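Step 1: inspect the first sequence and its tokens.
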Amino acid sequence: MTDIAVHVESVSKLYRIGAKIDSRSLRETVTDLVRLRRRASEDGERDLWALNDVSFQVRHGEAVGIIGQNGAGKSTLLKILSRITEPTKGRVVVSGRVSSLLEVGTGFHGELSGRENIQLNGAILGMTRAEIRQRFDAIVAFAEVDRFIDTPVKYYSSGMYMRLAFAVAAHLEPEILIVDEVLAVGDAAFQAKCLRKMGEVAAHGRTVLFVSHNMPAVRALCERAVVLSGGRVVDEGTSAAVVTRYLQRVTSPAGRDDLARQIAGLKPDPSFRLLSVRLLQMGNDVATISNGEPLQIRIDFEVLSPTMGLHVYFQLLDLEDTVIIESIHNGDTGEMLVLSAGLHEATATIPANFLAPRPYQLRVLAGVANVRSCVGEGVRLTFDVEQTGIVNSSYPGYETPARLAPHLDWIVTVPS
């Protein structure tokens, strides 16, 4: 285990909901404890396992992302790794000097100035005064708080607090840097600056544990990722593969099996009723799309009364909810048409060799122009595109980073 920086073995953390003991007599306290344990055994809701048998390892020099939905146990895990709290079961072995940024101003004393807090944090990390002085100017410059460096940090804004806290955590050369979603406090420019700095830390052979809901950042910064759900590890592997699987699972609502339930749950509209959405290739319903064949998106709906400006449309999105294309069924007519009452079938065709091999979301919507949406936020399904067409066929091992991969006509000439 000499190359292992963090070893988490069967770690569980129990919190007791509602376990509050007042300062009363010893007899009353003991009585309340007995009652609480009896109630806890009768009512499992009093026991909350924030983590349940979590195990994984992080090697020295690795950058690992820890992802999961809110309440999955990510912050609890980082607090255990940072020795802020102890696990109920299991053990954690951390090899190296740890610097943690779990919330704004972690480890800062409000009455001390920025300068004094830098020195204090350096001393806590075991650094000499000379080492702290050597890095002091870089910390202040990164945090952009030079005018206020001798002001007590209790007067800092949350943004200033966070900038200085991150600068201290990243510049005092910890062997293991642990960062929670606290970066969301900063503006976009500073978040990008922090991500670049964490990339530099990882590139210099230090270990980074990064919790974030920013999936592109996790994919770009981290080599591996661990997914927590309900306090358990449910997936682990390379960040690109893990993030893709995670987004496919959590896209809400997503999946063909869920589509009928979504449609049935739509609020009634006086003019429109969505009946079905189908993906077709060569006349067959498909779940996995071949990019070498045209894809038909068929939307069946009922118009309950003749309505001017009624239209159905779809959006094609990536798993990060970026809208790639949008198409409206009568968007090229130049005028608002009246749809007659009755059943309708609208089909749009995406040409062959247009989609890249990757997962997509399809979002189907309908509305009355300039009046209302007929299906609220619409319905969604997720599908995969596999490489079978002309794009990359000569280089089957190549995976394009593009969201779309259309086959364009090229003309190559030899100048005379």
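Step 2: inspect the second sequence and its tokens, then contrast the two.
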Amino acid sequence: MKKIEAIIRKSKYSEVKKALHAVNVNFFSYWDVTGQGHEKHGHVYRGVAYSTSDIQRRHLSIVVNDDFEEATIQAILKSASTGEIGDGKIFVSDITEAYRIRTGEQGGETLK
């Protein structure tokens, strides 16, 4: 099993969600996050300076069986990309075990 974490633009969330559903990844968690980017200068609006180094993003956490790893990553890459700096990152890590709390079931079957 793999855990795929993606940090994407909030504006791309709907497209990413649709792309994940299209490859049969129907369960994942997400939350809004704020991070620091490479851009260090701010913008001025009506005489007030605003920092643009704090970036609003959406963090997705997805656990899939190994055979869904590549399809999941490709779905995110294609749907989240704008071609601009700040499109986000994807991180992949191994999951050694999973348990379904309701039944005590364990392993990859818990993801179905």
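Step 3: confirm your contrast with the notes below.
The mean pLDDT is 90. The first strand starts at residue 2 and ends at 9.
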